[in-house]
């Protein structure tokens, strides 16, 4: 049974999430503030943490930092704040995904399932992956239909394809592909992702595989 620690200071939301997760055969622990969350994580050893960023005692980003000091447990953050900077900070601190309040419970459950799958023991990744009407061969570095990619486009595409469904933050993408000194050069990403969509998406203006999460990063949707 998958163990989930839910951290939020809204009692009604805690109850609703607990009922929905228990009904789907998750084992659930609850915490109403950051201090309790860190103690519960040490005692409960969750397989996943659902963490609200707006906690009464410790900022949620600091809780992410505290957890990452000793565990790689997947973390899905919840945020009701209008801006995206807190979510960016949480992803940079080590969170795995985010959901914006108010949210549909099915959306959160889908994110929980996806993050839990990614945290499972790795299976052999397919060498060939379909993107739109093309087959991308990661081993041979080829794309069907005589599509040619530059080395930089390959590095970006491979980073996304090897993490299906996962939100890859802008800072991580820039650092891994161009280097740490380019961590704020987000216009590089916009330019190269536009090029990849023109080459791979059936309708580049309405991408269905290479998805932008505004202000946050990108994800590959199979």
UniProtKB/TrEMBL annotation:
<dbReference type="InterPro" id="IPR001867">
    <property type="entry name" value="OmpR/PhoB-type_DNA-bd"/>
</dbReference>
<protein>
    <submittedName>
        <fullName>Response regulator</fullName>
    </submittedName>
</protein>
<feature type="domain" description="OmpR/PhoB-type">
    <location>
        <begin position="119"/>
        <end position="222"/>
    </location>
</feature>
<dbReference type="Pfam" id="PF00072">
    <property type="entry name" value="Response_reg"/>
</dbReference>
<keyword id="KW-0238">DNA-binding</keyword>
<feature type="modified residue" description="4-aspartylphosphate">
    <location>
        <position position="52"/>
    </location>
</feature>
<keyword id="KW-0597">Phosphoprotein</keyword>
<dbReference type="InterPro" id="IPR036388">
    <property type="entry name" value="WH-like_DNA-bd_sf"/>
</dbReference>
<dbReference type="InterPro" id="IPR001789">
    <property type="entry name" value="Sig_transdc_resp-reg_receiver"/>
</dbReference>
<dbReference type="Pfam" id="PF00486">
    <property type="entry name" value="Trans_reg_C"/>
</dbReference>
<dbReference type="InterPro" id="IPR016032">
    <property type="entry name" value="Sig_transdc_resp-reg_C-effctor"/>
</dbReference>
<dbReference type="InterPro" id="IPR011006">
    <property type="entry name" value="CheY-like_superfamily"/>
</dbReference>
<feature type="DNA-binding region" description="OmpR/PhoB-type">
    <location>
        <begin position="119"/>
        <end position="222"/>
    </location>
</feature>
<feature type="domain" description="Response regulatory">
    <location>
        <begin position="3"/>
        <end position="116"/>
    </location>
</feature>
<dbReference type="InterPro" id="IPR039420">
    <property type="entry name" value="WalR-like"/>
</dbReference>
């Amino acid at each position: 049974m998958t163990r989930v620690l839910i951290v939020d200071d809204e009692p009604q939301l805690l109850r609703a999430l607990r009922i929905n997760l228990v009904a789907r055969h998750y084992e659930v622990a609850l915490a109403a503030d950051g201090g309790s969350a860190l103690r519960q994580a040490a005692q409960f050893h969750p397989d996943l943490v659902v963490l609200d960023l707006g906690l009464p005692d410790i900022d949620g980003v600091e809780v992410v930092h505290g957890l990452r000091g000793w565990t790689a447990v997947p973390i899905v953050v919840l945020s009701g704040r209008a801006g995206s900077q807190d979510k960016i900070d949480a992803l940079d601190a080590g969170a795995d995904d985010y959901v914006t309040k108010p949210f549909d419970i099915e959306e959160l459950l889908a994110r929980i399932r996806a993050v839990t799958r990614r945290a499972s023991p790795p299976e052999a990744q397919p060498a060939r992956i379909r993107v739109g009407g093309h087959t991308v061969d990661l081993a041979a570095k080829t794309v069907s239909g005589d599509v040619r990619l530059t080395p930089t486009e390959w590095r970006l595409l491979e980073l996304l394809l090897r993490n299906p469904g996962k939100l890859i933050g802008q800072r991580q993408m820039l650092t891994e592909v161009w280097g740490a000194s380019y961590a704020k050069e987000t216009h590089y990403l916009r330019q190269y992702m536009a090029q990849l969509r023109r080459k791979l998406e059936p309708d580049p203006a309405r991408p269905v595989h290479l998805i932008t999460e505004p202000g946050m990063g990108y994800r590959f949707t199979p």
